[in-house]
Amino acid sequence: MALPMLLSLTALAREPAPAPWVDDSFSRLKALALLQSLNADLLSHPSATLTLERWCGTHRLAPEAKIVAHRIKGDDKPLPDGAREQLAIGIDEPVRYRRVQLVCGERVLSEADNWYVPARLTDDMNRQLDHSDVPFGRVVQALKFRRQTLSAELLWSPLPEGWEMSGILPPATGRALAVPEQVLRHRALLYTQDNQPFSLVVETYTSGVLAFEPDHIRLP
Q1: pTM score
Q2: Second label for 98, Cα 20 to 30 Å away, from 20, 45, 117, 218?
Q3: Which InterPro entries does the UniProt entry name for this protein (predicted)?
């Protein structure tokens, strides 16, 4: 996909829905429960791609629940500090970098920075990663990999810290609930069946994961 088209799609995908979430305590509770549910689902499955695909289908974010990776080309990001030790590779071992947006329909659900060791993948996997927009998790699925989460950070909480003890909730404003662009971030290592690390990924989940009409979700 050409860069101008990608930027156009990104702008469209990040446009907020027409006020689906009202800024009141009930909506904030629902939003927090959904983010915690997504976080738990991501932590309990090795493939973020397949988890997002299920999320997209369950919450009807698009007519077809299919995740597509839009590659963002440009300067490679350097390996984070300590990444070579985490990947168990020497200083001269080649590492490739891939940055993508994971999109369902017209919604950008996450942006991922991925550093991987090509020598630990098959030639066909490396060709797909170099020349296609297939999501990383789907390309390497044959490895039957496992995922070790290094960190999981909620970047936005709809409710203030300590609300469950104080019982004090934000007052309703009657306006649309302002959801920031980035809501959740995971950092993880992927391992082969032989317990060999082959990828370090940083995934940042966007407000797109909540871009649906919430009326069909009701708390007891």
Answers
A1: 0.81
A2: 45
A3: Chorismate_lyase_/UTRA_dom_sf (IPR028978)
